[in-house]
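re: that chain from earlier
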Amino acid sequence: MIVRRLANGLRVHAITQPGAKRAAALVRIETGSCHEPDAWPGLAHLLEHTLFAESARYRDQQRLMPWVQRQGGQLNATTRGEQTAFFFEVGFGRLADGLERLHDMLSAPAFPLAAIQAETAAIDAEYGLLKRHGETLREAATLLACTGSPALHRFHVGRQATFGEDAQAIRAALRDFHQRHYHAGNMSLWLQGPQSEETLMALSAPWAQLPNGAEPFPIALPLAVEPRRMALKLAETPLLRLTFAVDNHPAIVEAAALLQGFIQDDAPGSLAQALGKQAPGARPALRQVLENPHTRILAIDLPCGEAAPESIAALFFDWLAQLQRQSPEIARHYATLARREFNACSPLEQLRSRALMLGEAACSKAWRPLLQAITPDSLLRLYSTPQLDGQTVNSQGFSLEMGEYPSTSDVPPVTGWQFMDGHCPAPSPTPSRSVELAQLTWQGAPIFLLGARLPDGQGLALQLVCAPLAAACRHYGGDMEFDCVGGEWLLTLSGPPLVMEWALDSVLNAFGQMTPEAWRRGDTALDRRHQQLMGEIALRALMAQLPALLEPPEDKPCWQAALMGGDDALRRQLEQRLSRLPWPLTRDKAPTPATSGHHYLPAASDETAILLFCPAPDTLPASESAVRLLAALLAPDYFRQLRDELKVGYAVSCRFHQSVGCCGLLFMAQSAHFSAQTLLDITRTFLERAQPQLAALTPEDLAPLLAASGKPPSETPLIQAAMTWQAHRRHGQASHDVPTPDTLYRLYRQILAEPARWLAVQNPQNSGVV
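^ sequence. v structure.
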């Protein structure tokens, strides 16, 4: 990475990521909600939204948002207390075009009145969603004990009532805030892609024309965390948050990223494994709550289950004491593992981590001082639980029910903490028996897959026994997951041959030793997941339940397996080891038809949410390619019409969706004002009225999307292999036919002609909607 400061004060970071197919850009402005005028709560957030509207050079479909969507890319923005950031990712050849649009929208926004009115309504809807969002409420409670800025506790999100109805006055306030804070000396630009660092740096040349501005950096004071004990009522699995402040120094931040790796490690004998016994399926985490030039506020989240929070705190400090005794070699091994996982992320994921979170881990000189600074008396302890009687407290515009922190302790300390050293044990002797394993062509390192459509309780039980083995596999240089992909519970495994053999042996041995108690832990994890979903945004709750509805689990699960790539020697080894699978293995099984009709799924929300799934007319590979393209074409207009024109709400989306046996278009919308039937009618009408646009398509219209076609950048090789295998079972050999405007239009007409095959999903009807 090279870093340079341009003559106007803009700081530019250029990072080469060899082999990447995409490139990303991020702009960070050292201004956020804490800097907005007292008279305009939420103004920084509203400015973030309205900057995506028209600018001097780019209007309508040439704006950054619709342009990125047409490239098959992704973009977003975020407003925090002390910073605001805008970021996007596209094919690396289009990075310069995207940068031009990003530069124009940040330097020369038009602030059209219609956009201001639309975005105030969108933020009002977003505020309605966040009032029930567990992590948002937990952060608001955490900040009650943070000091250093008088603006930390005031209302930041914004809503219609605080903005008012005078769009002209709002525009004047936005322009003033933009002119004072959005200048080069207050910004940094981050670029990452396969290009050389000098090539990336050259793309920043137009940004040297940004004015430096007269407004200096906002004055920031060091932040601090009061070592208090608080309790918050949340309809989620009980959790203890330990919060502390560290200096915002690169060596300390690198050490904090390394601590994050230790805390989130799921290997045998780890902190995550010990906590999992209290709350099956829950995992600890370290997250950044707040940052300013002097300080970072960090929080360690520890799931409690039914254990008292003080018991969990004692367990954590016992583990931390053992961690401090580990050798530098162990710390360096964990840092190497963290960097390997970081390097596997997409350019945009890496940029967001570098610019907005903790970035890359390192065993720096600050490692041991950081651990020694985390003491029982220095931390804020916040316990969140659904079982609490308290009083209402306001923080950041949210009503929090706060109560007394429990002081009892009821769990004996854990012994036998383990920290991995990266040396893989030898696999067990190869069995004499073998089974037949399908082997498919695959460009990349070999990947083994084993899966079945299981009830979620069973799938979660197997996931729990696989989790420590998967973590150990990563320590040994491999990669393994057991998760639900497209409605199917799948084991995916890659790595050096001996690591793959050891991992498969270990998994099958664990499967063969499943006890009634182990299966019950899966049911407990499922109950916890349902409880978590009830605290989620309604659309997320529906999406989490969609796979099991679309293709229900089988009464007698049929296990299937395949090897993607690899040589004959590896296949034979895996065939012999797979003979230990305790359940029958099926070579071929036809996918079952997807569910259709109108269904209700639970989601604890005052708002109405709908999903509409329109399956492809068949399982041919050409149809799958075409429906992917069709979803990308429809997404920008669906978003614009429902969110901006009809003001349905904040959460609106159209995307491609696939499961084991089918694929198709998936429309999603959530609203506080419209009924489910109205949302479904709007969506059906949108789909019908897309006919003239799709009938008039030209090859030039499809070119950007075809250039960007392929797997989403966020998919790991394991997930890509899983979805490729599922596609192979749906339609056999892959198709190399490129969708044309004619084939796309025919597919659209076929989908439109078969509404009986569509699946509509909603949460129970909300009162007070139209």
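The mean pLDDT is 91.
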